[in-house]
Description:
- With 416 residues, this protein is α+β, with helices and mostly antiparallel strands.
- The protein has helices spanning 16-33, 46-49, 58-63, 82-91, 136-152, 171-183, 191-199, 210-218, 228-243, 288-291, 306-315, 334-350, 364-374, 384-388, 410-415; strands at residues 36-37, 43-45, 66-68, 74-77, 101-110, 122-131, 159-164, 249-250, 262-269, 280-284, 299-305, 328-332, 355-357, 378-382, 391-396, 401-406.
- An eight-stranded mixed beta sheet has the order 1-5-6-11-10-9-7-8, sandwiched between helices. Strands 13-12-14-15-16 form a five-stranded mixed beta sheet, with helices on both faces.
- The mean pLDDT is 95.
- It binds histidyl-adenosine monophosphate (HAM).
- Histidyl-adenosine monophosphate (HAM) binds next to strand 6, strand 10, strand 11 and helix 11.
Amino acid sequence: MYRAPRGTVDILPAEQAYWAFVQSRAADVCRLYGYQRLDTPVFEDYGLFARSDASGTDLVEKEMYVFEDRSGQKLTLRAENTAPVCRAYIEHGMANLPQPVRLYYLGPTFRYERPQAGRYRQHHQFGCEALGDPSATLDVEVIELAIGFLSSLGLCNLSVLLNSIGCRQCQPQYVAILRNHYEAISSEVCDDCRVRMVRNPLRLLDCKEPGCRRFADEAPHISDYLCPDCEAHFGEVQKQLRLLDISFTLNHKLVRGLDYYTRTVFEVLPERQTGQSAIVGGGRYDGLIEQIGGKPTPGVGFATGIERIILNLKEQGIEVPPVDTPTVYIAHLGDAGRHAAVQLSRRLRDMEIGVITSTGGKSLKSQLRQANALGVRHTIILGEDEVSRGEAMLRDMTANVQQTVAQDSLHMHLRA
Length: 416
Ligand code: HAM
């Protein structure tokens, strides 16, 4: 028997109310802040993600779905959305638009990870990217937008973690100091950390191995090594967050798993924190557009995993509005009833009244049972006699009463 591939899930009708709720709130909040939707392809050129400077990240080394198409072109299923958005910004000459260009996306993202609660091989991201402006105000705008979005869903008790990882000027100096710190204790760290010391030293700080955590706690703080510009930028971000009453915790170990970040990085964690608990991750990436072939252009943004948001909605017991389904069921008896049902269904739908039409030759009893199970408000019953008089039996399923009405006036009863 076939099953959905490991790490993927079917989003069943019963789940769709959550998805519709989250997606519509995302669109609402983006409208408030002037972010416009951009949809990029689900697959991209392999090189867009596997840039030389991105090697050493788990995403590129272990998690990408890579394949060749029939022409031999090497492609990757979208492993994150920031690089594709930047690619589209360059490709469509968005540098000529008023800056910053504010964009958002919603869609599936693929990572070959070890599946567990809240971690999938296909997940869906909602994210925002603001391109073409280096100011701290924009960092704060995207953090505020992310928080506003989560609050609009009713999620509470969220914490914001904040850090600055400096720029191409000051970060290398800090990385050298961090390496020195770890060289002295290299025999005590885990195997992965020994590799990180060579390939991706910043990631030493967020090693999850219990034995390594102490070394990260004791490591020098990058905030003590920022250049004056990065320090001023970070100070301004914090100042504006305070102006907006957005509480945050500075965390010198927050470095993020992707290679492209500069200056501000942040995550939002929910109330109950587990290993995979960040619901939002983001930051500034002032070098990325240049790395993928554009003119030097700053950018800042975040992404959030819709599955993780829904897990948290459920954990916090938040109810979501139900998806609209038809409130009318049409039952029928005999050939004349069936034919009248087909025509009446069409007439009601033309009037924007949703209808579920009974099919097959079921008994009236079993049709009514089905109507009950579907939870409709009204059932219309078309028997041979009613049809011959242009009438129908209208049954109110909650009150359990029925009356005979002219088919032509049904819509008024149904809308009442
Ligand atoms: P990320 O932290 O890799 O950042 O992913 C963003 C969010 O996507 C996470 O906080 C989490 O909610 C969700 N997520 C990631 N991986 C999975 C997974 N395997 N299963 C379920 N949910 C997952 C980025 O992708 C950056 N592009 C964010 C960004 C935008 N930075 C700047 N702009």
